[in-house]
Amino acid sequence: MKRICFFLCLLSFALVGCKTQKQATATLPPVILNNSDSVRVETIINTIYVPTPVALDIPQQSQTSVTAADSSHVETDLAESDAWINEDGTLGHSINNKPGKLQGEVYVPQTTTQSSKEAVKEKEIPVPQPYPVEVEREFTIMEQIKLAAFWYLVGAVIVSIGLLFRRPLMKALRKIIRL
Q: Among 115, 116, 76, which residue's Cα sits nearest to residue 96?
């Protein structure tokens, strides 16, 4: 009998709660986050790669030719060479560069910087106010009771389990405290 009375008292205390039914409807003034003038400086850096013609060094190139004849002709990309043996046994040799220039193209970066100073006035932005949301239908009284009583019932079940198993729980708690 004591258990039932204790359980009903505990359940009645759990079901009684404090909650306001009305929500505050007073509008709040807007919050001013920053109300100062400032200057914003924007710097834009553009890099453009422009092709520039340049003169290149002649690359080192060699070619060797051995022939059984009394004259020889060797040619590379940039020059041609002739060699021969004279009647008196001396070696004659001539080398001629081919006509034309060695030109190359190099991409040179050109950087331009643009700065703009702009005075910025910041405007006050009001904090948005909550607005009512339309719902399809209102909850019925039974649905409202079920929603309100669910967590109270969960609490009552936890307390009931604690009361039913209080002796094993107390023994375990005493063993933990002694350790």
A: 76
Entry field: residues in the chain: 179
pTM: 0.27
- pLDDT class of 158 with cuts at 50, 70, 90: very high
> Cα separation of 179 and 166, whole Å?
20
Half-sphere exposure of 24 (CA within 13 A, CB side): 4
Neighbours of 75 (CB within 10 A): 13
Digit-coded pLDDT (tens) for 42-69: 778 888 888 888 876 666 665 655 566 6
Q: Whose CA is closest to 61, among 42, 43, 75?
A: 75
The position carrying tokens 């060695």 is: 102
